[in-house]
From TrEMBL:
Sequence ranges assigned to domain AB hydrolase-1 in this UniProt record: 69-316
Organism: Pedobacter chitinilyticus
InterPro entries: AB_hydrolase_1, AB_hydrolase_fold, AB_hydrolase_sf, Epox_hydrolase-like
PANTHER family named among the record's database cross-references: HYDROLASE, PUTATIVE (AFU_ORTHOLOGUE AFUA_2G14860)-RELATED (PTHR43798:SF33), MONOACYLGLYCEROL LIPASE (PTHR43798)
Protein name: Alpha/beta hydrolase
Cell inner membrane listed as a keyword: no
GO molecular-function terms, A-Z: monoacylglycerol lipase activity
Length: 327
């Protein structure tokens, strides 16, 4: 009887522990509190009713009449823009921060993901808010989306700001192709531990305790029973990045453009598929920043020494100074 009771107690603890882990974070981040109120924009696509989360933050100082729209990277959502939102609002800007469909608090849909479609959804969101023109700031994958937005909607783009955008190379030229299904199997292997290792090795030159919050979010969803859906969407958007380059169209950008580049960034989408020699050959932002700026007529390049993939988190003071002085 004692053994039976002991076994039941152990089983209860194990089940309870698993339940707590499973509930750590839902794949729409209900438990993650964003710094500003979140609203939802309805979208219908491929017979599905979706929700696009966004923050609409009013200026906290005298309004300057200008609007900034922030596009997040692939492994993030609106939550990592908090310090940028605060600074812009304090300087009189209204700030719009969408979670793209498939990311953050937005719907995790099984659809064909397209930068063209994403750009159109963001255009529709801005139309619904009666915003005719805005500064479009994109980081990482958001830089690819911001570029596509500026190409499709130059009349709505006051200025294009690219913070360490991916897609400065055509990954199809040197990264081996993997199918969405193959990538899905890779995504399913993600753990909180592998997320932290990736962030440490890929995003920052020096790890700081405050970066752990990013890991808690990206790693927390791996405990969810719905994580396979998250992983599938991650694979679908990986394919989108690989198959829909913007690098060949930088010459077509007609709006004022600012490039903010951490020179120590070595990001390559699909880096793990490359041998050591090619990993050193590609993804060199200290070179890519200059070559990209040269392709965009009138573009201004500002580089940050000793900074990796996310300047607004790793060296915020320098990033804010460069941003505000050049808007």
């Amino acid at each position: 009887m004692k053994r039976l009771f002991l076994f039941a107690a152990i089983l209860f603890c194990c089940v309870n522990s698993f339940a707590q882990k499973s509930d750590t974070l839902s794949i729409t981040l209900e438990q993650v509190k964003y710094a500003y109120p979140v609203k939802y924009f309805p979208i219908q696509i491929e017979g599905q009713d979706l929700r696009m989360a966004y923050m609409d933050v009013a200026p906290t100082a005298k309004a300057n009449g200008r609007i900034a729209v922030l596009f997040h990277g692939k492994n993030f959502g609106g939550y990592y823009w908090t310090n940028v939102i605060k600074i812009l609002a304090e300087n009189g800007y209204r700030v719009i921060v969408p979670d793209q469909i498939g990311f953050g608090k937005s719907s995790k849909a099984f659809i064909h993901y397209s930068f063209h479609q994403m750009a159109r959804w963001n255009s529709q969101l801005l139309d619904s808010l009666k915003i005719n023109k805005s500064i479009i700031l994109g980081h990482s994958m958001g830089g690819m989306l911001a570029t596509r937005f500026a190409l499709l909607f130059p009349e709505k783009t006051e200025k294009l700001v690219l913070e360490n955008p991916i897609g400065l190379e055509d990954y199809r030229a040197f990264v081996p192709y993997v199918s969405t299904e193959q990538q899905y199997k890779t995504e399913l292997k993600t753990t909180a531990e592998s997320v932290k290792k990736y962030y440490q090795n890929s995003y920052f030159t020096t790890w700081k305790p405050e970066y752990d919050e990013l890991v808690e979010i990206a790693g927390g969803v791996t405990f969810s029973a719905d994580y396979p859906r998250w992983a599938k969407v991650a694979a679908l958007t990986f394919t989108m990045i690989y198959e829909q380059p913007v690098v060949h169209e930088f010459v077509n950008i007609k709006v004022p453009t600012l490039l903010l580049i951490g020179k120590e960034d070595k990001t390559i989408v699909g880096k793990g598929l490359l041998n050591a020699e090619d990993q050193k050959k590609y993804g060199q932002y200290k070179v890519l920043g200059k070559t990209t700026a040269a392709k965009i007529q009138g573009a201004k390049l500002i580089e940050f020494e000793g900074v990796g993939h996310i300047p607004h988190l790793e060296k915020p003071e320098d990033f804010f100074k460069a941003l505000l002085e050049n808007l």
